[in-house]
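Bug #77: duplicate submission created two jobs. Keeping one. Sequence:
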Amino acid sequence: MRLCVPTKTNLTPRPRNCRGKKQKNRTARRVVPTKKKEMKNKILKLIGVAALALAAILMTSTAGAQVPTYGPATICTSPATLATTAGTNFANPPIIDCSRQQHVAVMFSFNQGGASTSNVVYTLYPSVDGIYYDANAALTITIPSTGTTRVNYSTNINCGGFGYYEIYSMANTTALTTCTNLGVVYGIKTLAP
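Kept job's structure:
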């Protein structure tokens, strides 16, 4: 770097560099923001904070929503007995609500009053709206008896597009004993496919 040696010609009140050019003011100027810029900055900060808060809320709610919860429901405990070779059509059929998922676990339970290996037959009618049920698309579930030993028969019903099933009827096919302790329980895993 060249040093400037003052001479009579370059002694002026304004500082100059060695080439005779005026030196630039090297001190930084402070920029004073206008009110518009201040408002814009505040709004951008608020939008950023709101976006982060919304992202946190969505992450929290979706994380909780992905955990299925299980809820069994007893829908049928009557009639208490079913006579020999008898069937019953329910006046108010028990309803299985499968509107929130495609597969529903159902458990049928009963026992015979004596030694019998005959079947107990359940007939279920599907519905789209929960009001009108279709006998033409009936689902029949046939369960063998084991005498006086209690039968707990579980199955998964693939509901497909149907939202509801009603247990329209049940029948005891044996001519020997009365079927007792009838019960139907179904389970739903909420928020599950």
